[in-house]
Write a structure and sequence with these properties.
Layout (H helix, E strand, L loop, with lengths): L4 E10 L2 E11 L4 E5 L6 H8 L7 E6 L7 H6 E4 L11 H11 L5 H11 L12 H13 L5 E5 L7 H18 L2 E5 L3 H7 L2 E6 L2 E7 H7 E7 L3 H7 L1 E7 L3 E7 L10 E4 L2 H8 L11
Helix pairs in contact: 4-5, 5-6
């Protein structure tokens, strides 16, 4: 199956600063994919390259098997930018009519139904809508293109908890009904953990993780034990993060080999713990016994 988004050595530089570097990915279709990382990690840059708003400095990216700016790709990709760029002086109804005019495959009945369900007044100016209402309208416009791939750049970052919950419910309902593939960029790890089946983690402008979330969680464990014995774990596993107290060490390790030493307590890792650990800039140094 052709990946919905594929990058090979992809990079984008602004002057001397790399916003994204050596990005190689193959994202599967039919899933909700979480794109996480700290501010400045390259999330927005990756999405902007994928929709053709930016051109790569190096490497290439293909979306639905084609270049981002090809006519077929533009028609099949929905995008909600972080600032949700809607025309503030248009009403909700005028925004939908403009969407129909710009998109040949526009789903007018579906757009009206979504607006009715979320309770947006058709005659209300976009500029008078709340943040949550603007987010719902932007999502409606993107979904009404009937895209095969939907890219969302921090769509709930500025929403209160209730508006965020409503937005995610609308999104997941659409995924269930239409099967659209979603790439959801977010720094809200709890939302990613609840909604995403595949995780891409960027840090320091590079891809640190890209895999099925269940696979990633099964590969990592949190272990706690005597600091003096930590050296043995460094030799047998990849230690992603290490925290030390005077006599105790707590380590996030990656590896399939079992840890059978009774001196160590082993537990599963949460997606939030996993993501936060990989957002650090470097792997921990080995500790002296």
């Amino acid at each position: 199956m052709t990946p919905v988004l594929e990058a090979e050595g992809l990079g984008r530089r602004y002057g001397r600063q790399w916003a994204l570097r050596d990005c190689t990915l193959a994202l599967p279709g039919g899933q909700v994919i979480g794109l996480v990382g700290p501010n400045g990690a390259g999330k927005t840059t990756l999405l902007s390259l994928a929709v053709g708003l930016l051109r790569p400095t190096e490497g290439e990216v293909r979306v639905l098997g084609r270049r981002p700016r090809s006519p077929g790709t533009v028609a099949e990709v929905g995008f909600v930018a972080q600032d949700k760029p809607l025309y503030r002086n248009l009403t909700v109804a005028e925004t939908l009519r403009m969407g129909a005019w710009l998109n040949p495959g526009w789903d007018a009945p579906g757009a009206r139904d979504r607006i009715t369900r979320i309770g947006l007044p058709m005659d209300q100016k976009v500029g008078k809508l709340s943040g949550g209402q603007r987010s719902q309208l932007a999502l409606t416009v993107a979904l009404s293109k009937r895209p095969k791939l939907l890219l969302l750049d921090e769509p709930v970052a500025d929403l209160d908890p209730i508006a965020r919950r409503d937005f995610l419910r609308t999104l997941m309902s659409e995924v269930a009904e239409s099967g659209v593939t979603v790439v959801l960029s977010s720094h809200l790890l709890a939302d990613v953990e609840k909604t995403c089946e595949f995780l891409v983690l960027l840090a320091t402008s590079h891809v640190q993780l890209a895999d099925d979330t269940e696979t990633l969680l099964s590969q990592h464990r949190m272990v706690t034990g005597p600091r003096a014995d930590a050296q043995s774990l460094f030799s047998a596993h990849t230690v992603v993060q290490a925290d030390y107290a005077e006599r105790q060490a707590t380590l996030l390790v990656r590896g399939r080999a079992p840890i059978n030493d009774p001196m160590w307590t082993v537990r599963p890792v949460s997606l939030e713990e996993l993501a936060l650990a990989y957002m650090s800039t470097s792997l921990p140094q080995e500790v002296a016994a």
